[in-house]
Structure of Aminopeptidase:
Amino acid sequence: MDNSIAQVRVPKFTFKIVDMWLHLLCGIILLGLHSPVSAVHPVVEHSLKKLSHLDPATLQDGGAQELRYRLPSYIVPTHYKLYLETQVHTGNRSYSGSVDIHLDVRQEARTIYVHNRGLRITSNELYRVDPSSNLTFLETLAYTQDVEREFVIFAIRQALAPAEYVLRLDFEGELRTDDDGFYLSSYLDANGTRKYVASTQFQAISARSAFPCLDEPALKATIDLEIKHHPSYKAESNMPVFAVAGDLDGYVATVFETTPRMSIYLLAFLVSDFLYTENETAAQRVFARPSAINETLYALEAGIRIMDVLDEHIGIPYRSYMPKVDQVALTQFSAGAMENWGLCKYREELLLYKPGVTTYRTQTSITTIIAHEFVHQWFGNVITNEWWSYLWLNEGFATLYEFMAADMAYPERRYQDLFNIQVLQRVLITDAEESTRPMTFSRGATFNAILSLFDSVAYLKGGSVLQMFRLLLPDSGWRQMLRTYIERNEYGAVTPDDFVEAMTEAFDGVVSLPENVDVARFVGSWVDQAGYPVLEVRRSYRGEILFSQDRFYRNKIVNNDLSEWIIPYTILEQGDPLDAPFEWQWLTSRAVRVPSTTPNDEWVLVNVNQAGFYRVNYDPSNWYMLIRTLTEDTAAIPMRSRGQLVDDAFHLARSNRLDLEIALELFTYLRHEREYPPWEAGSRALEYFYTRMRGRSDYLLYQLFVDTLIGDVFLTLNVTSVAPDESLLDKYLKQTVSSWACRMAIESCLTATREALEQEVFESEPVHPDVQAVVYCYGLRTAPTIAFQYLFGKLLGSDNRGERALLITALGCANDTEQLNSYLITAIGGDLQVNFNNEERLSILSSVLVSREGVNALIDFLTENYSYVKSLLGANVVFNLIQSIAFNTNTVDEQQMLNELLEQLNSELPARVVADAQATVSINLAWPSTREGVLLSYFLERYNFQPAKTEEPQTVPKPKVIYRESVLE
């Protein structure tokens, strides 16, 4: 803990609890890159769930009619004076308010358009502002409601001349219950009493559901806010409290300082009984429900460290714009996290850290998501995307610095080494689909159309492409570009042209672009067209290399796509020092021949450290030379490039661009690998083959193959304990390898996890949180029933969302039918009424998918309880569960079980759900006879794989096999 943290007003680790007399003004992100903990950023994950239910035809139609939903450009808001009254302390959803909207009318106008979603306007008045700022009443306006476009259209009797006006509106509304807009949530306090909270989530276009406003990101204005509430609660917002005054009715009004000029979706407020910890010097606070206030110290420490390194790195201190920054942990916040200016909001499990409970993975999530939201204070808040089609200008920077800023704040943890595997390699998968979109793109101006843009392209691809741009410049040049970009556009709205302008200045005299290529063309080739290229590197072995590019598709080689990218690349030759600077070269056409002096018996490596956003394929000879070096002298190839080679080889083979045997040969080097990033890339490939091989006649050969890969590494690991000097990446490596060892039923792994679990159950020796995921999951497979009961009791007794999520996942690993059946029943209540929220209920149903026993239990459960699940969680949840069952159906017997379920529910299921499930199973059953299946089988039969050295033959045949991993998801 640094000195700034040591001065926190919590002497000797006892919290100074300060009453909250502030009101929150928050606008959230609907999507964002998760951290290294899971496949996607929590905000992105939230939006992807919603996106799965959007109708493509509706989105296409919305894009064609975008202008109908946009505000006219000649009336611009300059200031809001907003007043709200709430009785949220009682759980009452009704609230009322008024707003003065100051308007700059720039041409003669007969109508004023204001956004409104679900509010009742009770009165309106229009005033003109004279040069002395005095108001002159003009008229009460007639208006119409356009519910479809969410407009209130005010008609003016006599046309308004260009001038300043004020539209004063009184309105009434109800707090929403869907975690959007101005919404109601609740929690149980330490005494079991339900307490209510009013909070906000306005991004992208939900400020209009809280109060009438002009709800587009480019329409920035200053805001004065006043909230009237019960004195037992406090209000917080973007700005510090200016004053608190009592009223004759016993309520109080909290008045906030005026905000800077800002987008309306970034307004945020909170009315609650939350407490906070703070560091006055750093002007940072962290809010949480009172019973969780002792879990806020790490978020305060991380927030201070991250803000300090960002201030120094960007060179424009945060407090040049805002006087404070608060963070809030919410029990109900479906967005995951949100960067509201000065008042960032998070789901509890993404902010609260409990020593002895919180795992290294959750701590990584907390750290990187704080970095994500804090970077937004500049990129998103000081400067904002002009329209949602340019969302990558916000989210790309936040995703890039999610890891960079965390790494600068905690360099010993090597967060930056997680970027390629958690961001770049993940989006290379999704962006290879034919349905992907360009980074700059619009589908319209409706709620769903805008929501659909909060996807992996905006977040993960945006961050990856910006990483490529960054690495072309020296660090000083990149940082100067950031300052230029911010200072030139501060308090404004930006387009890619503004970014290109700043990049052009940064490149001038520093980066040598190819002839006839300027920065605009270079940047445009990456942001204005969909997908990405594969760079084919073919050596003639006669002094030349042929470079060619083609758009990479996941499932085909030959295509008529004529897309071309301006591709920067670097080359490492065998024997080159790894710490030497690399010279950037360029491919600007479909193909080119370049001279090469590399000896024919030595390899070349292109796109060193996976700096560029594309895949690389080589001729077979070069691949085999790389494989030999990986096996004989692993460290001769950079660690990030090793991860790239594994990832590229797998996906090139899956798309038939590379012989699968070469990819499998390359995977065999992993037995010599001791770094986590390459192992994570390999684990994803092994996971794919595992889902295909489970239940097949030659599955035993696959087990031996995996045993061979992990054996030597596994022998170096202590699966059930954590050494004091164990690094973050070592913990990731341990969890990845030990999970495979237990899944492959290596006896020592199953024994060690069972014994560690039993020591906690019977001897009160707690399992270290950093190995709980593996110990609990696999220990349950052979531990007595009391261990399951113990973990379930631990779940019921925990109020830490991160710990609860880990326990829910672990309990799903059980392979006892009675335990699984009882566990699934708790998801819908039954005789045992438990404190699960709906998200946790769904997690329970999904958790059992980690084993075939669990899938069978889920089939039986849905057969008996379909109507309960549908009424509680919605029909789409059931449909998705059925598709998950189909995904995990590999044999004829398993197909029969699924068909019986589909027949039982036939009258309830749409035809498309049944058809999709049956199509998935057909693909699974046919896989062994596909080219991929035959080649894998041939490879496994031809090689004499050996299990780990200490394992005796009794590990084969193996006990009940776990067929799908969840603890690493």
Confidence is low (pLDDT under 50) at residues 1-39, 950-969. Residues 342 and 657 are 49 Å apart (CA to CA). Residues 852-873 form the longest helix (22 residues).
